[in-house]
Amino acid sequence: MKQKNYLLNSIFGLLAFVLISNYNHSYAQSLKPSPIKPVISILGTSTLHDWESKVEQSTGEYLIDQKSIKSLTINIPVLSIKSKDEEKLMDKKTYEALNSDKNPTITFQLTEPATPVFSGSDAEVTLTGNLTIAGVTKKVTIKSSGKKSSSDAFRFTGSVPIKMSDYKIKPPVAMLGLIKTGDLITVKFDVTIPQQSLLANF
Questions:
Q1: Is 24 helix (H, G, I), strand (E, B) or coil?
Q2: Which residues in 74-87 are b (16+ Cβ under 10 Å) and which e?
Q3: How much of the chain, in percent, has pLDDT values that exceed 90?
Q4: Which of 12, 60, 83, 88 lies at 20 to 30 Å from 172 by C-alpha?
Q5: Are 75 and 59 in contact (CB under 8 A)?
Q6: pTM of the predicted model, to two decimals?
């Protein structure tokens, strides 16, 4: 009798495992990334003055499941990086420095699941992933803070310092070398995620 019960328990256990595995697999396949439209700017210095460029066409997508951001991708077309009107002279130099013909896109790809921490209307999350610029990929860690807005969404902001030399980029120069940009730049981002996308999973 004990042997019979053991056999039945084993069979039911195996069936339960198969059913749960199939459910999790089907659930994972049903999840689809959601699009985001980050606002990104790049700040730096030069021998003339500090400068700022805006990214006009950044795109991305994210996937949240089981209390973690499972995936996040952000794409920045190099040619969408635009300076202020009085600094347009540097745009062409920037595209050349980034070798836009061979590497037309700057990308960030999340490599580790990230779990936001909520405190009332505030949130914090640390993103770890690969940043690819001019064909060179480096691991970066980005700390971001968020705040609930009046439109029932969380607005996340943050920044990451980057040395161009780390990506084998020669800082752009203009006016026969009279204007030289500094090696260190700061990439700032601002992105809004619907509250339901976050709190539905937390």
A1: helix
A2: bbbebebbebeeeb
A3: 51
A4: 60
A5: yes
A6: 0.79
Residue 45 token pair: 């210095």
Q: Which residue has the higher pLDDT, 101 or 68?
A: 101
Out of 25-34, 49-58, 99-108, which region has the weakest mean confidence (pLDDT)? 25-34
Positive or negative: CA dihedral 114, 128, 142, 135: negative
Q: Judge contact between 185 and 161, C-beta under 8 A.
A: yes
Q: Work out the average pLDDT over 178-197.
A: 85
Tokens linked to 18: 């198969």
Q: How confident is the model at residue 202 (pLDDT cuts 50, 70, 90)?
A: low
Q: Tokens 């640390």 identify what position?
A: 126
Cα–Cα dist 186/55, whole Å:
13
Which pair of structure tokens corresponds to residue 27?
């659930």
CB atoms within 10 A of CB 34: 13
